[in-house]
Amino acid sequence: MTVETQRPRPTSGTGPPPGLTPDSVEPFRARLRGALLQPGDAGYAEACQLYNAMIHKRPAMVIKCADVADVIASVNFAREQKLELSVRGGGHNGGGLGLCDGGLAIDLSDMRGVRVDPEARTVRVAGGAVWADVDHATHAFGLAVPSGIISTTGVGGLTLGGGLGHLTRRFGLTIDNLLAVDMVLADGRLVTASAEKYPDLFWAVRGGGGNFGVVTSFLFRGCPVDTVIAGPTLWPLDRAAEVMRWYREFLPAAPEELNGFFAFMTVPPAPPFPEELHLKKVCGVVWCYSGDPAKADALFAPVQALKPALHGVQPMPYPLLQTAFDALYPPGLQWYWRADFVRELSDEAIARHLEFAERLPSMHSTMHLYPVDGAAHRVGPRETAFSYRDARWSEVIVGVDPSPERVAEISDWAKAYYDALHPYSAGGAYVNFMMEEGQERVQATYRDNHPTLVEVKNRYDPTNLFHWNQNIRPDVEKPPQVAH
């Protein structure tokens, strides 16, 4: 028995498949509670807008799922009609993989419920929620779920890729706080995967992306986080080598309650930044301290000793920190992403970084180094699909600008920056920071975990129905196994 490994992806503008007729579509529409949108329908164009405006896709239909039954019906219809199938949560994916051309796009954005159990300290989150929904619900109980740094990001995509952010050093990745998922498989079954049930599937979704089904609900452990001491510290760009050398030693030795990601940036011309810094290229660290407030002054004393141009650190509710970049990075900008995992910041790598920091092509373009240590290092590389537990940082380089006319400029800068720094990297990349970069990069990202991911793919999605992602291809040399 042969297994299809990767369906060819149609180009933009491809029309609906020949077999997709009113006789097949209308009975399907009648089974749905949510809307079925096709080209020309009110709401279709809006449903096709992605966070990255550089990407344009036109599905034959978008299903605005109202509930799990809609998801099951959509998966079954796509499989039976042999349609391309994509799954959209928050729509932030760098490569625009939440939508497909000419096929069926499952849109979960109307499924956004969050329920907190304050006694058990658990958080149940529907598959279409964004992190702002979670932060709002959990903060009322003095809890948080570790996530990213932009509150409009979808819970589903960020979690399934691993989940790096402000709380990584203290509480680990988002997947390290994941207790269970409800998901619809390629054959239309709804299952709950956890450490006790479907443990192979639960292992795979913790870092393996959307390769194995549609997650309709996440169950997280809530972490005790309320007010944090947080904000940016900035230095002039001509001090970047000094600051990076200090940062590479300071942060790994700091208490795990302190997180700080390093950045090159152009200062936005708006509050809270002082006018004398507006549109200046700088380096900086965005801090989040979630420990004992009485220890904060001593902890930040070495930061102050470096005489920054701005030390904007202050107490704030955790959800406020989570929204700090929302206004700077609204939906609809042009994005080009490149990324790597990094084990060390050598003097040679720092010198290459500075070459490209001086050439930041736009106000929105940046480079971030997110810490991947502390609690994240206490999980073994084989305990979840997320392999790079031995990395020290996750590096992301993004060329970003509002104007489509600058796409080539920002993309060329990001590609050249990546090419210059990749020799100093650990090899793979955080899947949530990747564009469509091919199977070699996917395998480099999962390393020794890739063969196990292929086995799980064989078991639960042998025909590769879910392939609009950083794809784990099923193994055509082996017959698919029956999953129970």
Compact summary:
Helix content is 26%, strand content 22%. The protein is an alpha+beta fold.
DSSP summary: helix tally: 14
Helix/strand structural class: alpha+beta
Q: What oligomeric state best describes the polypeptide chains here?
A: single chain
Radius of gyration computed on alpha carbons? 22 Å
Question: What is the general shape?
Answer: globular
| Spans of at least 5 consecutive residues with low confidence | 1-14, 477-484
Q: How large is the share of residues in beta strands?
A: 15-25%
Largest sheet, described in full?
Answer: 8 strands, antiparallel
Average pLDDT confidence is: 94
**Number of beta strands:** 19
The proportion of residues forming helix, as a percent range, comes to: 25-40%
Give the N-terminus to C-terminus distance in angstroms: 20 Å
Question: What does the model show?
Answer:
The chain is α+β, with helices and mostly antiparallel strands and 484 residues long. The chain is built from 14 helices and 19 strands. The chain has helices at residues 22-30, 44-47, 68-80, 131-139, 155-161, 168-171, 199-205, 240-253, 296-305, 318-322, 347-357, 407-421, 439-446, 450-460, and strands spanning 35-37, 61-64, 85-88, 104-107, 114-117, 122-126, 143-144, 178-184, 190-194, 214-221, 223-224, 227-236, 258-266, 281-289, 310-311, 314-317, 334-342, 366-371, 393-401. Strands 12, 13, 14, 15, 16, 17, 18 and 19 form an 8-stranded antiparallel sheet that branches. A 5-stranded antiparallel sheet has the order 5-6-10-8-9. Helix 8 packs across helix 11. It is globular and about 70 Å long. The model is unreliable at 1-14 and 477-484 (pLDDT under 50). Residues 1-24 are annotated as: Disordered. Its cofactor is FAD. Belongs to the oxygen-dependent FAD-linked oxidoreductase family. This is FAD-binding oxidoreductase.
